Amino acid sequence: MDLSAGISFSFLITIILCSYSQSSQLYLQPVKNDHAYFTGDKFFVTCFTTEDNIEKLTWTDFESNPISTNDGRIHAEPAEGDQVGLRLVFTNVETEDAGTYTCSDDQDSVSFDLTVYRAVSFSDTPSVQHAPEGDTGVVLCNVKSDPKPVVNWYFEGTKISEDKKYSIHPDNHSLKIHDLTRNDAGEYKCKAFVFTHLSSQIKDFDIKLHVQYVPEIIGEQRISTYASVGSKKNLTCTVTGDPIPIFQWLHDEMIIHNNTKNFVIYSTENTSVLQMHIDNEDRFGEYICRASNPLGEKEVVIELKEGDPPSAPELSVIGQDQVTVKLNIKAHEDDDVEDELRVVGFKVEYILASESWNSALSQEFKIGGPYELKNMSYNTDYIFRAAAHNAAGYGNYSGPVEYKTQDLQKAPVISSSSTVFTLSSLLFVSMLLFVLL
Ligand SMILES: *[C@@H]1O[C@H](CO)[C@@H](O)[C@H](O)[C@H]1NC(C)=O
Ligand SMILES: *[C@@H]1O[C@H](CO)[C@@H](O)[C@H](O)[C@H]1NC(C)=O
Ligand SMILES: *[C@@H]1O[C@H](CO)[C@@H](O)[C@H](O)[C@H]1NC(C)=O
Ligand SMILES: *[C@@H]1O[C@H](CO)[C@@H](O)[C@H](O)[C@H]1NC(C)=O
Ligand SMILES: *[C@@H]1O[C@H](CO)[C@@H](O)[C@H](O)[C@H]1NC(C)=O
Ligand SMILES: *[C@@H]1O[C@H](CO)[C@@H](O)[C@H](O)[C@H]1NC(C)=O
């Protein structure tokens, strides 16, 4: 926009100068005497002449050294297009380039002053920063510029204002966060503004803040669980923590090493599973899952007691509602069973009558039901079986129960809501008739 306005302006001048003067005249574009840029900028200033060639034009710097037309960081090159002019091109301008530049021929000369400011830089500001929870956290922004920048901070896109929670250091611009919590973790932006009467610059830098904390146990800190001799058992502990915690398992104050005869440990970022084979009664007792990071450690104590899984439950099929098969499952347990060993749920496995249990599908239920298998096929022979679950694990499966689902036309609708609907609509119609009569 500026350029085209400038071009028409220059045409105007050309016409005026051509009609009123025989000697050459020089003029610059952009049409101003003061140019200000930031280090690293790339720009050019063009010197136009009323003559019809540029052979006599030269650019000189503040020490009167002519600027060559080679391809240097600062160089001169002919203007493109119809106009007759010589450009002075700066690539990657530096502070020492500041000064007066002059374009001249044998009759005229014209100059401009170049000011160069040091651009905003965030050199060696880490883009990922860490601070421990609880203390006062500091987010660094090593922003530099000349003149000095004004710095604003943003958290998750919202501008931070200085208050009880936040303060911004006037010299090094670091952001202090008081009473740092995990909610303060996230994306910060350090935004720098530089302005002078000649120019301005805005730059920003994104920083991800991790708030570190001592491992925290998810769930109970003391757990009791059961198993029987000869069975396999998984002990699990789940924590969160930053840095990611390291897990260690102990039994009888001895560290359990991975991949030994009776133990395998599987750990992910926040869960560790101790998979064990209970070959004798010495395996019962207290296990400790210890999760630690540089900020501290936490322990989950798991008491492993001897106890049997439940006996096989009783399974029968109630019926079918469209593609849903409804089951009845009853636990078999003694009245005097310990509360901690009561049945808490069931697992139902099912296969097509032609398949083996290796290809079984399964579904788990909490005790109390309803025990419904959705999305079954019409007119299909199935075999079902169920096992009960308590703190010692799954017990034996019930005997297999065969059931053939009915085909689409015959599938009965055992939902009662439709009957209620018919009844109430009947009632409504009769009331209507009554009123009309
Ligand atoms: C910022 O500067 C102040 C004083 O100049 C200093 O006490 C503080 O440690 C500095 N903060 C950082 C993060 O460099
Ligand atoms: C223990 O965990 C492993 C792997 O997660 C699993 O395959 C296995 O079935 C589990 N064992 C028991 C007894 O729950
Ligand atoms: C323990 O050993 C098993 C089997 O070699 C391996 O898959 C697992 O990752 C190991 N666990 C740990 C915590 O190193
Ligand atoms: C486990 O860690 C993952 C990844 O760090 C996290 O997304 C998930 O919420 C954590 N789970 C729990 C239960 O804290
Ligand atoms: C499970 O079945 C096995 C063999 O069929 C039997 O020895 C065991 O006692 C049964 N377990 C329970 C809890 O009923
Ligand atoms: C129902 O079963 C079909 C075929 O087995 C499967 O593609 C579909 O995802 C299932 N739908 C639901 C809701 O489980």
Report on this model:
There is one protein chain. This protein is 9% helix and 48% strand. The protein has 437 residues and is mainly beta. The strands form seven sheets. Strands 9, 12, 13, 16, 17, 19, 22 and 23 form an eight-stranded mixed sheet that branches. A hairpin with a 2-residue loop joins strand 26 and strand 27. The radius of gyration is 41 Å and the shape is elongated. About 6% of the residues have low confidence. The structure holds 2-acetamido-2-deoxy-beta-D-glucopyranose (6 copies). The site of one 2-acetamido-2-deoxy-beta-D-glucopyranose (NAG) has 6 residues, from strand 22.
- Termini separation: 85 Å
Largest sheet: 8 strands, mixed
Strand fraction equals over 45%
Cofactors and ligands: 2-acetamido-2-deoxy-beta-D-glucopyranose
Low-confidence stretches: 12-21, 415-429
Mean pLDDT: 87
Shape: elongated
Report the strand count: 33
In short:
The chain has 437 residues and is mainly beta. 9% of the residues lie in helices and 48% in strands.
What's the SSE blueprint?
Layout: H1 2-20, E1 26-29, E2 34-38, E3 43-49, E4 58-60, E5 74-78, E6 85-90, E7 99-104, E8 109-121, E9 128-132, E10 137-139, E11 144-146, E12 150-155, E13 158-159, E14 166-168, E15 175-177, E16 186-195, E17 200-218, E18 222-227, E19 232-242, E20 246-251, E21 254-255, E22 263-267, E23 271-277, E24 285-293, E25 296-306, E26 314-321, E27 324-330, E28 345-352, E29 361-366, E30 371-373, E31 381-390, E32 393-397, E33 401-404, H2 417-436
Parallel strand pairs: 2-8, 9-17, 18-25
Antiparallel strand pairs: 1-3, 3-6, 4-7, 5-6, 7-8, 8-11, 10-15, 12-13, 12-16, 14-15, 16-17, 17-19, 19-23, 20-21, 20-24, 22-23, 24-25, 26-27, 27-30, 28-29, 28-31, 31-32, 31-33
The structure holds 2-acetamido-2-deoxy-beta-D-glucopyranose (NAG) (6 copies).
Residues 258-259, 264-267 line the site of one 2-acetamido-2-deoxy-beta-D-glucopyranose.
